[in-house]
Every structure is written in C-alpha cells, then in structure tokens.
Amino acid sequence: MLLTVESAILTRPSNLAELPLTALQTRWWFLCTAYPGGSSPLVGLVHRIRGPLDVDAWRRAIDTIVNRHEILRTLFLDRGDGPVQIVGPAEGLPLEILDLRDVPAAQREQAARDLLHDRRSLSLDLQQGPLVHSCLIQLGDEDFVWSMTIHHILSDGFSLAVIDRELAALYPACRDGSPAEVAELTVQYGDFALWQSTSDTSKEEEDRAYWREQLASVPPLELKNSLPRPAQKGAPAAEIGYVIGDDLVRAIDALARATRCSRFVVLLAALNVLLSRFSDQRDFCVGIPIAGIGRTRPELAKLVGLFNNALALRARLGDEQTFKDVLLGTRDVVFDALDHQDLPWGEVVATVQAPHEPGRAQVFQAMFLHDDVEVASRLELAGLVVEEFPLPIPRILHDIMVYARPARGGLGIRFVYDTALFTPETMAALGRDFEALLREVAEEPACPAFPAR
Question: Of 132, 135, 158, 259, which one has the fewest beta carbons inside 10 Å?
Fold first, then answer.
C-alpha cells in the first residue's frame, strides 16, 4: 500500500538493521562516487567561545546530541545493488582536544585555521567512517574554538541550527547537573528514510511534468574569462568576500517592498543579470537550497538529518529588459518553483535526463545561498561569549557559490569559486560589479538590464 505525504511516520521495527537511503542521500552518494576528489562535501559548525568553558560538560553535551540523533552515528554500505545505511551504537563522539597555548599568541589563530582546514579537507569513507568529527582547540586560558564537521550525506544547514539549539540547552544542564529542556524525539531520520521509500503522492507526477518542461534543454552557464574546464571536478575552492553597507541594504529592502518581493528575490535577480553580463548568455539556471519536505512535518522539524532540497531557477532574460522586468520575472519563477519543491533534486535530474559530465555539475553551475541571521547569534551560553570563526570552504561541486548573510555594518557577500576555472582577478571583478549593480538598480529599478555597448 502506498502512503501519502500526510501519512504518519512511525518508528521502524527494532530488528530492521539496514535502512534505505532517502532520495537526497542517494543523490549525495552518487555525487561522492561520480566526482572523485581530494575532500568530501561537509557541513559544519565553527564557534569561538570566550570565557570559562567547562570542557567535560561540553563533551557530555555533544555526546548527548550524538546519542539522541541516530543519523550522526550512521554509516553506508554498498550491497552491490545499491547502498544501505546502518546506525551505529549510542556511544557518543570522541572530542579531539588541541592545546595551542605554547604557540606564540600572534600565530595561534592562523594555526587553528590551518588545523581545522586540514580536518575539513579529508576524504571520508562512507563505509568505514567516521563521518562526524568534533574538535576543541584551546587558544588561551578562556579562549576556545570548537568545530563539528559532518558529511553532507548526514546533515544539512538547518540541522546545524538544531545542534546549536540543543547545545544551548544541554551544556548548562551538563555543567550544573540540572535537567535539560530538550524535546523527546519521537522518530529518527532512518524512520523517515523508510517512510519515504514506501510513500507516494498524487502531486509527484505534476511536479515531474513541471520540471521536465521548465528545465528542457537548459544550456550550461559558461562565464567569460574562465580557464579551460578540466575533465573532472576536484580543484580546491577559494573565495572573495566583502560587506555592503547598511545604506545599500536599506535601499535593497525598499525596492523589495515597492515591488512586493523579498530581499532574496532582489539579490537573486541582480545575480542573474550579473551572470548574464559575464557570460553573454540570456538563458541558464541558478540553484538555491530550500528546507525540504521534512522540515514541514512537526515530528521531523527537530531532527538532525539531510532534508534540504535544491531548486533550479531558470533565468530567461531579454536584451531589452529593464532590471524591474528581470526582478518581476525572477519573482514569478521563484513562486512557481516553490509550488513544485517537494520532488527531490536527484529525481529532478533523472526526470529531465540531465547529461552527466565529471567536470561540470548537472543543470546549474552557480548557486545562491541567502541567510537571514548571523550564525553565531544562534548559540547563546550564559557566562560565555560565542563568536563566528570563519573558515574557507575547501572544495565545491559547482563552479561558483554566492553567499549573502547579515554581518556587522550591513550584508556580507561571499563568492566561493572553483580555482580550476577562475582566477582571483576574475572573481574580484565579479564581486565589484555585483555591488555596483546593486547600487545602480536600487537607485533606478527601471534602468536597462543590458545597456547597449
């Protein structure tokens, strides 16, 4: 009997040792085996903690989280006809402790970044593990950097906020010996995987038809001044970053209100114009992450797991369009895509029969990621100060990823790029032009998107 998306997710039988992968996990399994490289795709938390941290209580809080969430103890075995996931015992997680207080004070931060970069650049074995790593670096008597890295097949960005919220409750409880106010988990990610493997929805075929039409014959994005594309992905990533000031952010927000859009849509429309100018293409896709179907169900909302989906937003632009035309068109594309967001990305790729090239990501080569809050603000601990400790991304599967996130004094913009394709000079020019374009369109939304040369 096929289940519907409204059907209850039940706890699986206790004797069921091997579980199917979700559609999103299957996609990551494919990516990790089809795009060989020197490092695995990871998501992770990095916090600088200043104050009298109780290290033993911190370790016990992390152990509790790992024991609560089975996915953080999961490995993947290839059975020949496909992979399965197997949950390991609830034995916590080793906390690697590194003391840098013997390093000269002026060199400690860079030494910490080097150590964490090495740990984020590893190629993890999905069958043997470990797929989760926790590291606490001591820079001073009351100065620490904590990092948790998780293979992307286990987790997503939203899950990091779940971990932060649980740490905020569990650490003081472990330190003080008091009860922790964390909700009981009624199901686990493996239960969701089993449910998804036997579920169906009446809307699935409608979604498939939408994406089949929307993404038919979409051309790949090729930016000008790029280097020759290598046969396979695998080069390290690099990035440029800057902060656009509060005055420009307010102007962007005013434009969003005036056009009944959001800041996200304004930024995405401007990025579409920027990429179009740098490629001389008027037709391409930009990918965005979304929370995914699991986050809309109350029994799954508080789980660590891979729920984030991806949407391919197609930009079909015209030489005579104004920026406002592009903006309103982008808004419509976003709204339509959100109506069909439940089909997992791997199934979208299969539906549109996107060609597989080891040197190029399928369907979209650029991604845009927009956050509403600063990461450090998610974790508040009494008696301690929690700050961000930014680290570069070691490798990306796409050509370019553009991040926008609130920062002190405005909005932080980061261009992360594949060093096999782009030089720092090309990315710096892209970054400068993006800020200039945002200022231009915020002042005059009716300006030509593609001025005559």
Answer: 259
CB atoms near residue 248 (< 10 Å): 17
Contacts of 279 (CB under 8 A, 6+ apart): 221, 222, 223, 224
**CA separation for the pair 423, 428 (Å, rounded):** 9
> Which string of DSSP letters, residue by residue, matches 387-409?
EE--------SSSEEEEEEEETT
Nearest to 222 by CA among 429, 365, 433: 365
The SS3 call for residue 155 is: coil
- Considering only the C-alpha atoms of the chain, give the largest distance between any 2 of them, rounded to a whole number of Å: 69
Q: What is the pLDDT along the chain (453 residues), one digit of tens a residue?
A: 233 455 778 888 888 889 999 988 988 888 787 765 667 888 899 999 999 999 999 999 999 999 999 999 999 999 888 899 999 999 999 999 999 999 999 999 999 999 998 888 788 899 999 999 999 999 999 999 999 999 999 999 889 989 999 999 999 999 999 998 898 999 999 999 998 887 665 678 899 999 999 999 999 999 998 999 998 887 788 999 999 999 999 999 999 999 999 999 999 999 999 999 999 999 999 999 987 766 778 888 899 999 988 999 999 999 999 999 999 999 999 999 999 988 888 889 989 998 888 889 999 999 999 987 555 456 889 899 999 898 877 778 899 999 999 888 899 999 999 999 999 999 999 999 999 999 999 999 999 999 987
Q: Where in the chain is the domain with CATH 3.30.559.10?
A: 23-193
What does the alpha-carbon distance between residue 65 and residue 165 come to, in Å, rounded to a whole number? 10
pTM of the model: 0.83
Out of 3.30.70.360, 3.30.559.10, 2.60.40.1520, 3.10.290.10, select the CATH number for domain 23-193: 3.30.559.10
In 261-398, which residue ranges form alpha helices assigned H by DSSP? Answer: 263-279, 323-338, 345-352
Residue that the structure tokens 């169906």 belong to: 200
- As a whole number of angstroms, the distance between CA 37 and CA 39 comes to 6
